[in-house]
Amino acid sequence: MTHEAQSYPGERLGRPPAGSGSIARLGRRVGALFIDYGAAYLISGFFGWDPLAILALFAAIQIVFIPTIQGSPGHRILGLRVVQVDGSWVGLWRPIIRTALLIVVIPAVIWDADQRGLHDKAAGTVLIRA
Fold this sequence. Notes:
Elements: H1 26-44, H2 51-69, H3 73-77, E1 80-84, H4 93-104, H5 106-109, H6 118-123, E2 125-129
Antiparallel strand pairs: 1-2
Helix pairs in contact: 1-2, 2-4
């Protein structure tokens, strides 16, 4: 069985090569992560800068905002959305699985040819440009 090489990330998923609906690229992903983690860091100041509070707030931001506004505040600020692979709403459990694996870090830095981290693959989600 032969597999054709894809010419751009997301081609196998039926995503366009660029623009709205295309796979989010590294720069925007990292930028969104910094925005969300920075917000969690600042908010945690009310709790004494406890590292566990920062992580818990980061997780809460992801779990609350992904199903409600289709992405975290960082995602939305940078023009990204989190959807199921078929483009539909992520539901309530996918953000929990995605976030649990994201805060472990390793699954998020292992990507496939579509630039989807293991956290997205396990949750059946994809981060796309809005």
